[in-house]
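Can you give me the bound-state structure? Components:
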Amino acid sequence: MKYIESISDDVYFNLALEEYIFNSLKDDTYFMLWKNENSIVMGKHQNAYEEINIKAIEQNNIKVARRNTGGGTVFHDRGNLNYSVITDYDKNTFIDYDKFIIPVINALNSIGVKAEKRRTSDIAIDGKKISGSAQTIKGNRALHHGTLLFSADLTMLHDLLKTTEGKIESKSVKSVRSIVTNIREHLIDTTINIDEFQKMFADAMFSDDIEKYEISQEQIESVNELVENKYSKWEWSFGASPDFYFEKESAVNGNAIKVKLNVKKGIVTECNIQGINLTCGELEENIIGSRYSYIDTVNKLKEYSSLKGILNINYEELADCFF
Amino acid sequence: MIKLIKMPKLSANMESGLLVTLRKQNGDDVQKGDVLFEVETEKVVSEIESEEDGKLVKLYFREGDNVKVDEIIAEIEIAE
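Here's the bound-state model for the whole set.
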């Protein structure tokens, strides 16, 4: 086994590095530890618009990433440690989470964290989730990765995930919400920081003689290409969302407004607005064909000439009707 | 000869899988090792590869469908 410590805290770089190792380094088992700055990471076949609070994401400039593994949406920040295991897979065997999760639980236990397995792919303390994991399998290689909530901002996690009174219909993979907790709260010494925890965890996982694998400059360039062509692209993080239908009834200044949308690959293909005492055709046409984005919607409403004469109009409140 | 491609049983508890991506469509030529589709179950994305050369002649499901283990997903006409 070889150990890689990521050199970056950029979510796009780290997911690209993981994919690079998965596709290009097949000679050994690789174990990687990595942390990201504030970001949202979705499962491969999720609908971004169904999982995340688009308004909060756009207004706070949070990076949204789509990973190659299955499952649901998670929030990452510098208080969350991620581990990846990239190894051989025998097609004649079943999917196995235990062979990856049990060593992690044992390492946590050895440094005083009373962690235990929960459901198929989670780790919990007193029933509260501290770690979720997911996998992808391609040919004879498997990638398993998981999160370890150490001192993450759990309020931010909550605020950035989707809440809407509207209705969304799609064939996407849905997230399952869990009650979570930070590992640090359960330690005797609660002053330990994430970097110290990372070292303790790595020491507990491996013996001293594990080979540390350094990424070369050439490899970094390949990873950066993958960042540029895939992970940082809107077409991947948002545009790869399954098609969906959205419907929401809202009230603005006592007027009922009903918005219906069809969105394909992140682009609004059909738009129907009812209830504004104005002809909406122009606005609908303006929205059709553009990306389904909160800030863009606000701007389009501002451009819409028929709304300009209305006193005290709150464009954000109106834009909320679309999300 | 027609080869039936069925939903594989990927884990001990698997009853069905989500057919998340169709990489090949009706009428497409396929080669051994080509990815036919992606299946997701228990947070695992798995690429299902073709085991022979031929042509995909029938597709029974659409993207996003939930397919029971052993149900036929597609038919491949094997090249002579």
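A couple of observations. Residues 30 and 54 of chain B are 5 Å apart (CA to CA). Chain B touches chain A through 22 residues (CB under 8 Å).
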